[in-house]
Structure formats: structure tokens, C-alpha cells
């Protein structure tokens, strides 16, 4: 009997049916074209084939997207596809409920389920429906029960079961349920699954039951061309849509280069580009062709690889640390025998393993993918630093950072200008000075300028000394000595050239020494203006002691109390009211709550705290007569709290001393 059904099926289907593919956006060059022809014959034959068809592929390969498009084809021919997602389905009735809801959406609405259940139980011909859930009958449906059963039937439908690997039912039970439609009722059934999923791979009975139910299995091939057209329709930004549509070949080139064939990654990468373009776009930015092309490549590449797990946000930050001086020295290159990591393979695939000239600062990409947004400040800095947007106003050191993009004439002009500005003490900010010095040291080391690296190092240190003498050295802000300086290896999102060389490390240590001296001079001067605030504005006085996101903190990580007179501090404490005393104690507690952080400068303040405690204790004990509320506050809880802080610091200092002695003895 089964053989007769299959023979009849083969004879009936004949040649592939004729379809208007353009009507449903299925292209002639679709990699699944042969599969489409088979599905046409399978779904439209007059005789039941007697088996189900499985469409398999890994997650993101476009199985659901493919079947959605194919359902449009079936509907255009008057067929009735019924789609069920098995994701989370734990019992057969859950599948039946999904069928029922599709066959008649009104009756499948959750708001009328109780009414339907009552109507079925009473076998009445009229169903009263509360459409808006307000407890009142809004209309009647005159439906006899036999007719209702006909409406709820799946007869003649083409059944589609998606997400087999995500079904909560045992795979054998689920396929057994599907087999009822195939074997006993003659339905055409399509099953979509990721056979590589653990839920299927570890099911020992899957192969046996599959052989009984599934007659043919096909691998879905991602149709990136058609998917991209569909994804672009979802992009809401008009300008981003225009760029993506115009450069669709570039988009697909990145997608195929990654070799993941995951359409979900492609879709998300497109949205990522649209989002970042909205963060940075200006009226003329779209006209910068090379910038747009590079930005598109950067964002799509990083988005796909990040979601594939090969590139972390930290890895993106490191892209800005590329050091072109290394590429002059073959000894620095990795051995061909060393196996590449997933990260290195990803960078190699996309040409990011060599000095990448990115459209935006690497730190901007890290911020965008790490936080889901790009701040206005970061966007502005990135555009200002982009080599693709460079013009006559772009600083020469920025142009030199992208050394390999320069002509001989440009290199000569920019290197001469950087040296001239350096010795003229024009570079005041830390980031610019360190970039200028690191570049000139590297150029000297490679013989690209007339100065030797020893001579250039001496010149750089003289520049720092002269800047300090003329009060031009950047003292930095508390806890961040640079403003735009991000760590000791980069500034403005660009890594210092040759930052690991001995010449730069020696210079950097010298610079830090001079900067610290300048910083302490500034702290000393500021402390003179700061102490009177304790009486005039205790709130502002306190804010300068602790780190705050929105407010400037002059001394949050600087030893200001090393420059404050203990006598003066005690005199002020004895004059201020209790609320101010409480604010002082809270500020000190927050300042010293984590002793292991910034230990050096905090320990510099320990002598001050010890002297304040001794002088204040003596002053409180010497008081005679009735005591004021403020004096009572100093005596009963300010001094005990200060004593506890000092005890903790003394203990911590002792632990540090013991640890140092232990290390020295080893």
C-alpha cells in the first residue's frame, strides 16, 4: 500500500510547477532553488506522499525566514499552511491550541476561551463573546457545534513544525504525534530542526523514530541576498537605509568573509550600523565615501565577530593600540608555527591583525558594543581623530599616527611640524605631548628623522623640564592625569607608538615624576582656597574629597591633608555646627572606606589624622563648664570614629610592612 502511494505520488507530480517567484521575493539565484522545486512537488501533489520532510540547519541559518517566505507562496496558490513553533511545548494539546488559534483567530483569543468552553459543554448554538473584557456581552456568534468542529479542523492544511530541538516534550513523543498526521491522515508535513543541538544529539531514540516519520531531509542554505533585502525593510533610519542599500555588496562581502552563515548575525549587524550612524551622523558625513565604506566594514565586522564570541569589548579597545613601529622589525613578528587563537583568526580574516586604519577610534567601538550607545563626547572625539576625515586643521601628530597612509611629502611636512611644536612647548595636554614624543622616538629609532633615538630622548626630557619650569606641564585631574588620556598606553583612543620600548618607558617615568610634582604644587595651592569652604559651604568642601560622577573632585585621589594644618583644621571643627561635623565625618569615612585602593596617597594623610585626633582630644578634655551640642558631637562620636579610622590604617600599614619584609627575605 505504501509503495502504491509513493508510486502514485511520483507519477502525479510530473514537472516542477510554475510560480511567480517575484510575487513572494524568492530569487532565481536562491541557493535553495532545488529545494523549492521539491517542496512545490511535495506540497501540491494530488496523492499523499506518506512521509514528512525535515529542513535542517544550525541556529541562525535562516530556516524560519525561509519557511515564512514559502508560506507566502503556498497562500498565493490557495493553500493553507499552519505553522507551529515547538519552542517550550510540553504536551500535545499545546500544539492543538496553536492550530486552533490560527484556524480561527477570534475563537483562539484568550479572552473568549472560557466562553467557548462553556458553549461546548452546553452544546448550544449561540456563543456570547465579551470582546473587550469588560464583563459585558458585545456580540453573538451563531455557530452550530458541528460547524465549529469543521472550523477547528486542520483538514487540507500543510503543517509546519518549527524548533523541534527546543521542544520540551521528549523528541520521540513529539515525532510520534507528528506521525499521526503523516501516516494516518495523509498530511503534508514540514519539520524544521537544528540536528546539531544537544537536545537532539543526545536523544538515543531520535534516529530510529526519525527514520519512520521523515522521508527526506534537506539542509537549508542561508540566502543572504534575499535576507538582506528583507532586513533592510526593517531599518527605520532613512539615511542608514540608503547607505546599506547602496552598499549591499559590501555588506554581503563582510558576511561571507566571516563564514558563520548566520543570518541573525547579519540582521543584528545591520541594526548596529543603523544605530551607530544615528549617533555620529552630520549633514555632510554621508558624502565622505571612504569614511562611510570603512565605517560600514568596521561595524559589520565587529558586530558579527562579537556575537560569534571571537572578539570581546576589550579586544576592540586593543585595536586602537596597534603599534606600527613593530612592523619595521621582523623579530617582533609571531612565528608561523604558533597556532592562532580564535581572536587572532577573526582579526586575520578581516585584515585587522595588521595596523588597522579604523573609521572611528577603537575605544568608540568598544563603548558602543559594550554599552549599546555612543556618547556625544565620544562621537565628537572619534570624528575629530578619524584619518578618513582629516583636513588642513587636523593636528600633525594625528596624521603621523597613521604613518602608512602618508606620502613622502606629507610625512616630511608632518614630522617637521611635530618636532617644531614639541620643542616650542606647544603640546600642553598630556595626551598630545605623549603622542608627539612617542612618535618622534619611534621615527628616530627607525632612522626616519635625522635625530638619533638617544638625542631625541634627551630632547623630550628637556621639553618636560622646560614645560614644568614655565608651569605648562599638564597636572591632570584627580585620579586621571590626562583628561582625554585613557590609561598609560593610549590617549584619544590611539595607542602610543613604541610604548613598550625602553626609550619611551624611561621618558614616561620621567614625565610622571615631573607631573606629580606639578600636581602636588597645584593641590597645595588649591588647599588654601578649599579649607575656608568648610565653614562657608560644607557641601562643596565635602564633594572635593570624594569621587563623584557629575561633580569635579579636586582631591578625591590626592593627599590634600598632607598640605593642611592640623591646628587650623581643629580650630574650624570647634567652630562649626553639628551638621557640618557629621558631614566631615561621613566624607572621611567614604574617603578611606577601601584602604587597599590608592594606598600610597592615603598613607600620606595618616600623620595628619593622628595629629588632628591628638589635638582635638586635648582640646575637648580641657573644656570646662556646660558643653555645647557641637562639642558633645565631637566628643561622643566624631573622635571615636576618627580613632577607629586611624587604628585601621595603622594596622593596614603594618600589614604592608610585614608583606614587604617577607618578600625581601625570599
Fold and architecture overview:
- By secondary structure, this protein is an alpha/beta fold.
- It contains 31 helices and 9 strands.
- It has helices spanning 2-13, 33-44, 63-76, 92-103, 105-108, 113-122, 145-151, 171-184, 198-201, 206-213, 224-232, 238-246, 248-258, 263-280, 289-308, 313-319, 342-349, 362-371, 376-385, 396-401, 408-423, 430-445, 453-469, 502-530, 533-536, 538-543, 566-573, 578-591, 599-603, 606-621, 629-665; strands spanning 52-56, 80-85, 126-129, 139-142, 157-162, 188-193, 214-219, 490-491, 494-495.
- The strands form 3 sheets. Strands 2-5-6-1-7 form a 5-stranded parallel β-sheet, sandwiched between helices.
- α13 packs parallel to α15 and α16 runs antiparallel to α18 (362-371).
- The model is unreliable at 1-28, 111-132, 140-152 and 480-486 (pLDDT under 50).
Strand order across the largest sheet: 2-5-6-1-7
Strand content: 5-15%
Report mean pLDDT, rounded to a whole number: 81
Structural class: alpha/beta
Radius of gyration: 37 Å
**How widely separated are the two ends?**
88 Å
Main beta sheet strand tally, sense and closure:
5 strands, parallel
- Shape estimate: extended
Amino acid at each position: 500500500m505504501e509503495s502504491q502511494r509513493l508510486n502514485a505520488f511520483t507519477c502525479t507530480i510530473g514537472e516542477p510547477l510554475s510560480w511567480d517567484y517575484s510575487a513572494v521575493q524568492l530569487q532565481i539565484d536562491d541557493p535553495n532553488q532545488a529545494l523549492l522545486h521539491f517542496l512545490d512537488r511535495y506540497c501540491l501533489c494530488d496523492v499523499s506522499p506518506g512521509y514528512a520532510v525535515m529542513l535542517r540547519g544550525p541556529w541562525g541559518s535562516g530556516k524560519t525566514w525561509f519557511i515564512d517566505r514559502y508560506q507566502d507562496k503556498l497562500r498565493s496558490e490557495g493553500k493553507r499552511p499552519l505553522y507551529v513553533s515547538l519552542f517550550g511545548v510540553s504536551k500535545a494539546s499545546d500544539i492543538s491550541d496553536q492550530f486552533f488559534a490560527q484556524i480561527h483567530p477570534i475563537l483562539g483569543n484568550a479572552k473568549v476561551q472560557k466562553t467557548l468552553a462553556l458553549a461546548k459543554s452546553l452544546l448550544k448554538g449561540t456563543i456570547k463573546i465579551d470582546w473587550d473584557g469588560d464583563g459585558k456581552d458585545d456580540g453573538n456568534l451563531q455557530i452550530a457545534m458541528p460547524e465549529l468542529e469543521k472550523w477547528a479542523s486542520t483538514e487540507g492544511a500543510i503543517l509546519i513544525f518549527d524548533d523541534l530541538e527546543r521542544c520540551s516534550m521528549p523528541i520521540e513523543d513529539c515525532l510520534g504525534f507528528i506521525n499521526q498526521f503523516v501516516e494516518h491522515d495523509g498530511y503534508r508535513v514540514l519539520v524544521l530542526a537544528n540536528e546539531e543541538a544537544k537536545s537532539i544529539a543526545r536523544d538515543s531514540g531520535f534516529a530510529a523514530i526519525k527514520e519512520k516519520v521523515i522521508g527526506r531531509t534537506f539542509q537549508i542554505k542561508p540566502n543572504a541576498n534575499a535576507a538582506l533585502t528583507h532586513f533592510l525593510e526593517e531599518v527605520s533610519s532613512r539615511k542608514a537605509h540608503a547607505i546599506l542599500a547602496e552598499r549591499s555588496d559590501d555588506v554581503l562581502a563582510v558576511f561571507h568573509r566571516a563564514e558563520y552563515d548566520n543570518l541573525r548575525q547579519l540582521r543584528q549587524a545591520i541594526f548596529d550600523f543603523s544605530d551607530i550612524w544615528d549617533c555620529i551622523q552630520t549633514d555632510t558625513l554621508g558624502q565622505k565615501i571612504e569614511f562611510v565604506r570603512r565605517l560600514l566594514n568596521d561595524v559589520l565586522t565587529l558586530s558579527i565577530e562579537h556575537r560569534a564570541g571571537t572578539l570581546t569589548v576589550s579586544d576592540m579597545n586593543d585595536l586602537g593600540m596597534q603599534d606600527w613601529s613593530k612592523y619595521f622589525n621582523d623579530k617582533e613578528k609571531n612565528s608561523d608555527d604558533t597556532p592562532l587563537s580564535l581572536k587572532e583568526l577573526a582579526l586575520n580574516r578581516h585584515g585587522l591583525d595588521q595596523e588597522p586604519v579604523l573609521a572611528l577610534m577603537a575605544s568608540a567601538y568598544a563603548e558602543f558594543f559594550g554599552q549599546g550607545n555612543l556618547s556625544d563626547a565620544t562621537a565628537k572625539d572619534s570624528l575629530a581623530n578619524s584619518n578618513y576625515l582629516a583636513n588642513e586643521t587636523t593636528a600633525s601628530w594625528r596624521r603621523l599616527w597613521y604613518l602608512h597612509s602618508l606620502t613622502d611629502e606629507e610625512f616630511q611636512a608632518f614630522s617637521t611640524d611635530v618636532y617644531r611644536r614639541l620643542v616650542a612647548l606647544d603640546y600642553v595636554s598630556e595626551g598630545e605631548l605623549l603622542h608627539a614624543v612617542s612618535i618622534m622616538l619611534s621615527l628616530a629609532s627607525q632612522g626616519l628623522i635625522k635625530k638619533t633615538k638617544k638625542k631625541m630622548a634627551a630632547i623630550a626630557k628637556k621639553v618636560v623640564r622646560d614645560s614644568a619650569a614655565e608651569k605648562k606641564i599638564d597636572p591632570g585631574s584627580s585620579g586621571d592625569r590626562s583628561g582625554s588620556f585613557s590609561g598609560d598606553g593610549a590617549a584619544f583612543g590611539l595607542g602610543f607608538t613604541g610604548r613598550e620600548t625602553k626609550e619611551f618607558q624611561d621618558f614616561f617615568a620621567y614625565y610622571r615624576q615631573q607631573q606629580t610634582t606639578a600636581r602636588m604644587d597645584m593641590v597645595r595651592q588649591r588647599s588654601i582656597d578649599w579649607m575656608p569652604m568648610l565653614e562657608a559651604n560644607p557641601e562643596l568642601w565635602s564633594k572635593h574629597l570624594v569621587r563623584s560622577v557629575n561633580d569635579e573632585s579636586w582631591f578625591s585621589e590626592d593627599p590634600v591633608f598632607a598640605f593642611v594644618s592640623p591646628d587650623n583644621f581643629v580650630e574650624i571643627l570647634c567652630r562649626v555646627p553639628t551638621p557640618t561635623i557629621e558631614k566631615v565625618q561621613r566624607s572621611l569615612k567614604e574617603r578611606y572606606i577601601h584602604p587597599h585602593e590608592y594606598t600610597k596617597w592615603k598613607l600620606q594623610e595618616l600623620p595628619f589624622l593622628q595629629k588632628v585626633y591628638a589635638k582635638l582630644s586635648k582640646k575637648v578634655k580641657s573644656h570646662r563648664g556646660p558643653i555645647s551640642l557641637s562639642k558633645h558631637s565631637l566628643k561622643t562620636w566624631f573622635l571615636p570614629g576618627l580613632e577607629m579610622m586611624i587604628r585601621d590604617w595603622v594596622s593596614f600599614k603594618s600589614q604592608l610592612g610585614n608583606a614587604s619584609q617577607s618578600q625581601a627575605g625570599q
